Amino acid sequence: MNDPAVTEPAFVLHPEHHLSSSATLQDVVIGLSDGLTVPFALAAGLSGAVASSGLVITAGLAEIVAGSIAMGLGGYLAGRTEVEHYDAEQARERREVREVPDVERAEVDELLAEMGLSAETRRQAVAELTADPEQWVRFMMKYELGLEEPDPRQAPKSAATISSAYAVGGLIPLSAYFFTSTPTEGLAWSAAITLLCLLVFGYFKSRMTGQPPVAGALKMAVVGALAEGAAFGVARLVTG
């Protein structure tokens, strides 16, 4: 039986909600946003220069294939560069820990001082942190260089994700030309479909990243509309 004299702690744990933005989500955003805008602008430009929807479809498919390969390769190279950079910095830190340990201990003490630790606490912390060379190196990588160890398997994953998202995004504006008889008609439907997708995509992307969703939706739609208008205007100007 509970003693009425004993009171429960007068606090309630506050649930904190933080966004954990994964690498996969970032890759999808990169691929899909570019896929929705670049092929859209290309098709819009061709619509102002040619009289055949078949030419727009052919050029659009070629661009989607080339663009998805280029985007995927870019994602792979970026991932590999991150891994290689981390490995090079880690090797340098291991060498410095081995060859100039006193200098590295002084750097650990300086980092802890910047965190607000007292001299006595720093002395004990430095001794414990530097007792294990691997732990020492991990500390320096994270707090001196600000580097988190990347996943070596992420590069091929990023390549596949970005490439696929770009292809999916690119097929959305191009799909209108499959079901219309003229490029002008296809452009009208493509613009409506793509701008709607940009609004939806911008809304959810902004919501997931903690930004104002309505502003994010409008921003994505405006970028797409400007790209379409610029490409169409240039094509009209060139063809007279």
Brief descriptors of the model:
8 helices; 240 residues; mainly alpha
Detail the topology: elements first, then pairings.
Elements: H1 23-47, H2 53-99, H3 101-114, H4 119-129, H5 133-144, H6 154-174, H7 183-208, H8 213-239
Helix pairs in contact: 1-2, 1-6, 1-7, 1-8, 2-3, 2-5, 2-6, 3-4, 7-8
Tell me what the structure shows:
The longest helix has 47 residues, at 53-99. The chain has eight helices and no strands. α1 runs parallel beside α8 (213-239). The N and C termini lie far apart (91 Å). Helix content is 76%, strand content 0%. The radius of gyration is 27 Å and the shape is elongated. It has 240 residues and is mainly α.
Q: Main sheet?
A: none
Strand content: under 5%
The strand count comes to 0
Question: What integer is the average pLDDT?
Answer: 81
Shape descriptor: elongated
Structural class, by secondary structure, is mainly alpha
Number of helices: 8
- Low-confidence residue ranges: 4-20
Radius of gyration over alpha carbons? 27 Å
What's the N-to-C terminus distance?
Answer: 91 Å
| Residues in helices, as a percent range | over 70%
Could you spell the SSE succession in H and E letters?
Answer: HHHHHHHH
